[in-house]
């Protein structure tokens, strides 16, 4: 998450080709959105505080179609723990008409890059399959599409994976 903290606002554009309905020609649309760091507005990040998204859209003069945020596998707020699929955050984004984009990182917050237990070899060995399955079941229960950015930025030595 340090990369996200260093850049308070990251814009993303995705090209999506989809068929309007069965038997019609595919149509193209551009989806665009942001990781909205609320600090620049004196607020919490979206989707925790959607007033940040409102301020961002006022500043850009354009409505977002995507909203991105990050989640570590183990997060430490009041206490450290494995974080399940956060249905509430996804609902907030979906209620506003945004397609959620979750940057989902296999690491523990506030521990730096030296976390050998989260190396990709450990994940591929099946060590975390029970956690991943529980998380995926939560996503399935939510039942709406979203983009998942798993362990992004693998080209740096600042992350454990």
How would you describe this protein?
The structure is a single chain. With 161 residues, this protein is α/β, with parallel strands linked by helices. It has one domain. The chain is 27% helix and 31% strand. It contains five helices and six strands. The protein has helices at 2-6, 50-60, 87-95, 120-124, 129-142; strands spanning 9-19, 26-36, 66-76, 80-82, 99-108, 147-150. Strands 1, 2, 3, 4, 5 and 6 form a six-stranded mixed beta sheet that branches. Strand 1 and strand 2 (26-36) form a beta hairpin. It is globular and about 45 Å long. Mean pLDDT is 83; it is low at 1-24.
Quick rundown:
By secondary structure, the protein is of the alpha/beta class. Helices cover 27% and strands 31% of the residues.
Number of helices: 5
Element pattern in H and E: HEEHEEHEHHE
- The span between the termini is 13 Å
- Helicity range: 25-40%
Helix/strand/pairing category: alpha/beta
Rg over CA atoms: 17 Å
Q: What is the percentage of strand-forming residues?
A: 25-35%
Average pLDDT for all residues:
83
**Backbone shape:** globular
Could you name the key traits of this structure?
161 residues; alpha/beta; six-stranded mixed β-sheet; 5 helices; disordered N terminus
What is the secondary structure topology, with strand pairs?
Blueprint: H1 2-6, E1 9-19, E2 26-36, H2 50-60, E3 66-76, E4 80-82, H3 87-95, E5 99-108, H4 120-124, H5 129-142, E6 147-150
Parallel strand pairs: 2-3, 3-5, 5-6
Antiparallel strand pairs: 1-2, 3-4
């Amino acid at each position: 998450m340090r990369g996200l903290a260093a850049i308070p606002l990251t814009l993303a554009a995705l090209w999506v080709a989809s068929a309007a309905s069965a038997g019609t020609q595919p149509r193209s649309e551009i989806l665009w959105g942001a990781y909205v760091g609320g600090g620049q507005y004196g607020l919490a990040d979206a989707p925790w505080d959607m007033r940040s998204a409102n301020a961002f859209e006022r500043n850009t003069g354009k409505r977002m179609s995507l909203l991105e945020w990050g989640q570590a596998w183990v997060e430490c707020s009041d206490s450290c723990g494995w974080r399940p699929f956060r249905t509430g955050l996804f609902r907030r984004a979906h209620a506003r008409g945004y397609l959620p984009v979750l940057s989902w990182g296999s690491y523990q917050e506030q521990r730096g890059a030296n976390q050998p237990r989260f190396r990709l070899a450990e994940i591929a060995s099946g060590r975390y399959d029970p956690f991943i399955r529980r998380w995926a079941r939560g996503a399935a229960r939510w039942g709406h599409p979203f983009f998942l950015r798993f362990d992004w930025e693998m080209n740096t030595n600042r992350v454990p994976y």
